Amino acid sequence: MSPGDNPRAPGRAPIARNGPPRRAFAALSSRVCPDILGGGSPAEAGIHSKMSRAAHAHPPATAADLLAIPEARRFHEIVGGELVEKAAPSGEHGTTQAAVAGSLFGPFSRPPGGGVPGGWWFGTEVEIELETHEIYRPDVAGWRRDRAPQRPTGIPVRLRPDWICEILSPSTARNDQITKLETYRRCGVPHYWIIDPQQLTLLVYRLTPDGYLLALTADANSGRIRAEPFEAIELEVGVLLGGEAEER
Questions:
Q1: Mean pLDDT of 196-216
Q2: Under 8 Å CB-to-CB from 227, ≥6 apart: which residues?
């Protein structure tokens, strides 16, 4: 996370398919609040931290432990100090990941100008060190070029992304919806998308001082949307969810 980054500046008014979002609040727990997420109190955070430390029978893993795994067999993340192997993606997961990257790469992965928005770098399954004991491989991640004039490099990348998209798998859904969400909030990731390829839903979160605000919900019947932080263009939800493009 770069010093001086301030992703919590006020944004545009929330966009919500089902009306304006409620200002509900919930600390990190076993359930996911539908409106604002990841705003636990310091006391709750301390309890969580103590429980996490107690669970470790060995020192928490770091980048050195991750890089000690041969590259051909390194499909791991470090979550809460533990090495966790990512599940092999299902067909639905892989198709959705490719669709999200493909929908954004053309119009955004270039310098601004020339009739397209531009202004972003993207990566899929890139190892990103958010904290010493939290190194993730998001399904798709993006960095604004005004923060990162050069493409983020290294293993792991140590520059905090400006946007992350995780695609749910049955074995990792809890991590994506709770554990990783809390880490992304704590590290100041301004925008977080969660896509469920089984339920065919897209949740778009924006970081606020109180946690993640649900700015948009969409499903396979939503047609075209403008989703932060890529609201400069319309995106076909069906395509993002791995379906076919609409005929025109």
A1: 97
A2: 15, 193, 202, 204, 216, 218, 235
- Classify residue 198: in a domain, yes or no: yes
With contact defined as beta carbons under 8 Å apart, do 189 and 163 qualify? yes
* Radius of gyration of the chain measured on its C-alpha atoms: 18
Residue 43 domain-assigned?
no
Contact 224, 56 (CB under 8 A): no
Q: What percent of the chain has pLDDT over 70?
A: 76
Q: What is the tens place of the pLDDT at every residue in 91-120?
A: 999 999 999 999 999 999 999 988 899 999
The answer to whether residue 61 sits within a structural domain is no
Q: Which residues contact 102 (CB under 8 A, 6 or more apart)?
A: none
Please check whether residue 126 lies inside any domain of the structure. yes
**What's the number of CA atoms in the CB half-sphere (13 Å) around residue 56?**
15
What's this model's pTM, rounded to 2 decimal places? 0.79
Dihedral over Cα of 8, 185, 91, 200: its sign = negative
Q: What is the pLDDT of residues 145-182, one digit of tens each?
A: 999 999 999 999 999 999 999 999 988 899 999 999 99
Q: What is the dihedral of CA 198, 163, 13, 205, to 10 degrees?
A: 40
Domain tally for the chain?
Answer: 1
For the segment 23-32, the average pLDDT, to the nearest whole number, is 32
Domain of 167? 87-240
Cα(96)–Cα(233) distance, rounded to whole angstroms?
A: 19
Looking only at the bridges linking them, the beta strands covering 191-196 and 201-208 are antiparallel
Three-state secondary-structure class, residue 94: helix
